[in-house]
Structure formats: structure tokens, C-alpha cells
Amino acid sequence: MPKLDNQTIQLALFALIALAIAMQAIVMLATFFAMRKAAKDIRDQIEDLRFSIAPVIENARDLFTRLAPKVEQTTEDLAALTRALRVQAADVQSAATEIVARARRQASRLDTMLSNLLDAIDRANAFMTDAIAKPMRQFSAVLASAKAVVESLRNSEPASRSKSNHAPGENDMFV
What we know:
Layout: H1 6-154
């Protein structure tokens, strides 16, 4: 067996370290190439994306440039329309308030007129009742008395009253 001295051990360790550094360099080099290839692929994909998105962005920019004044004009028109509608709504509300006030006055006037008319009809009815009913009652009374006279003359003998209908001690007085 060979003799292991300090120098041999150091030489073996240096060889192992050199081998580890070489392995690490190879792995780092492989990683570098893989990263470089991935970066190139990503760069190509970004270029493709840029070429496909650039026209869309340009079209959107052109569209926004063309539409911005129209949107501003539409906004101004809507604001003017809103102001005009507010003014018209205030006018309509004022007119409606005036119409309601007039309708209330007319309703009150009509109520007064109808009340006066019904009162006049009631007074006329009372007058007609007094004017017609009173003579009619008097005429009816005259007719009743004439009928009673004729009836009494027809029956010359008055009907006798039976004593059974009277209580004892009761006189023939009419109250």
C-alpha cells in the first residue's frame, strides 16, 4: 500500500476540487446556454407579440383620437339638454301648480253655486208645500165636513150607544 503522506493527500484534494470546479463550470456553461436559448425564445415571442399588438394599439389610439372630440361634443350636448329639461320641468311644474290652484278656485265656486241652488230649491219646495198643501188641507177639511153633514142628514136617527162600553159613573163627555 502506498504511503499516504501529507503532500499526496493535498494533491488528491486539489484534484477533487479541480474536478468539482470543472463540473461546476460545465453545469454553469450548460445553464448559460439554456438561459440564452430561453432568452432568445422569449425575445422572439415578445417581438411576435409586439408585431401583433402594435396594430391593435395603433388602431385604438386612432379610434380614441377620432372619438375624443365626438365624446366631448356629446357630453356637452347632454349637459345642455339636461339644463333645458330642468328649465322645462320647472315651467311645467309652475303651470301645473297654477292649473291646480285655478281648479281649486273653480271647484270652490261651483260648490258655492250648487249649495245656493240647492238652498233655493229647498226654499221653493217649502214655499210650494205651504202654498199648495195648506189650501189642500183646508179643501180636504171642507170636503170632510160636507161629507159628515151629508152622512148625518142621511141618517136621521143617531146611533145609540150601548151602556156596556162605558164604565160606571162615566159621563158622556168627550175630552
